[in-house]
Amino acid sequence: MTALQAPPAAPEVLARCAELVRPALREAVGALHPWTAEMAAYSLGWCEVGGAPAATPGGKGVRQALAVLGARAAGADARAGVPAAVAVELVHTFSLLHDDIMDGDATRRRRPAVWKAYGTGPAVLAGDALFALAVETLAAVPQSARAVRLLSAALADLVRGQADDLLFTARPCTGPDRVTAEEYRAMAEAKTGALLGCACALGAVLGGADEDTAGALDRAGRHLGIAFQLVDDVLGIWGDPAVTGKPAGGDLREGKKTYPVLAALHSPAARHLPELLAAPGRAREAAELIETAGGRTAALAEARTHTAAARTLLTRAALDPAATEELLAVLDFLVGRDL
């Protein structure tokens, strides 16, 4: 990029990638059983319950954009990354369907979650269908063996991270069995980073990248995932519900051991935090104490550390310069929400 060129705008990059991927994604979902296809379309923000066109847009399409940009970063045409983009978007949607059930979250993107709109059993079934469809999508590409291995490894990490996240809620805030910062980072990398890293690497693999290039993209995506999870933790406590689509302080009421909580518990100023976290209806007081004890500041500082690590990996790897600029723009957009 020359000095006269403006840096790429992330929303434009995301929109362009989504436009490229949308026909293949719609075709894939359309091949499902009509009932599961409707639930999938609802979860993707395409329709309302019953199949009428949606009045509200779906998600940002970050993972599918990373797959397309991964292919371009490897020097291939963006279209080479489309099967990877479809697969990771299907897996991401599957994970959200099951995640909302496990967490008991009744809303997603400011409307009823799939399990609330259609029922728990149907939502589980739709998630299973999306997972199977993702594998089927990759099985049809020329590099299928390598691609399916990458996706399978990411799925294994995702499940491991989700398991740890659920188990953390039952562990104490203090003492030898408390959740450590190292355990949190491992959980965040697995639960959130694995699929982001897979998206980048999978697109690159379909674009003909070698192991070193795909590995650098995977590691960058994993650091991005940790940073994203840290910022998400901050928004889960202090975010505006009108923006996040979730109730303020929801993570505290659910007993989640998020990074701001873990960081605050190390401060003498937070000696009363465990009792506030255990008391129903005191989430606002807990949030104020966490901020006073430095939990918010520590989480954002940690997010900046992982963002910098991702940037370093992307700028040092042998990647297409224009695609790298767009990857960096998406990175900053994704984790810059509260930095």
Please describe what this structure looks like.
With about 350 residues, the chain is mostly helical. It has one domain (about 10-335): Farnesyl Diphosphate Synthase (Orthogonal Bundle). It is built from 16 helices and two strands. The protein has helices at about 10-30, 35-45, 60-75, 80-105, 115-120, 120-140, 145-170, 180-205, 210-240, 240-245, 250-255, 260-265, 275-280, 285-290, 295-315, 320-335; strands at about 105-110, 110. It has a two-stranded antiparallel ribbon. Strand 1 (about 105-110) and strand 2 form a beta hairpin. The radius of gyration is 20 Å and the shape is globular. About 50% of the residues are buried.
The CATH superfamily turns out to be: Farnesyl Diphosphate Synthase
Distance between the termini: 25 Å
* Tally of discrete structural domains: 1
Characterize the largest beta sheet: strand count, sense, and whether it forms a barrel.
2 strands, antiparallel
What is the 3D shape? Answer: globular
Quick structural overview:
70% of the residues lie in helices and 1% in strands. The protein has helices at residues 10-30, 34-43, 62-73, 82-103, 114-118, 120-139, 144-168, 181-206, 211-238, 241-244, 250-253, 259-264, 273-278, 283-292, 295-316, 321-335, and strands at 107-108, 111-112. The chain has a two-stranded antiparallel ribbon.
What characteristics describe this protein?
339 residues, mainly alpha, Farnesyl Diphosphate Synthase, two-stranded antiparallel ribbon, 16 helices, 2 strands
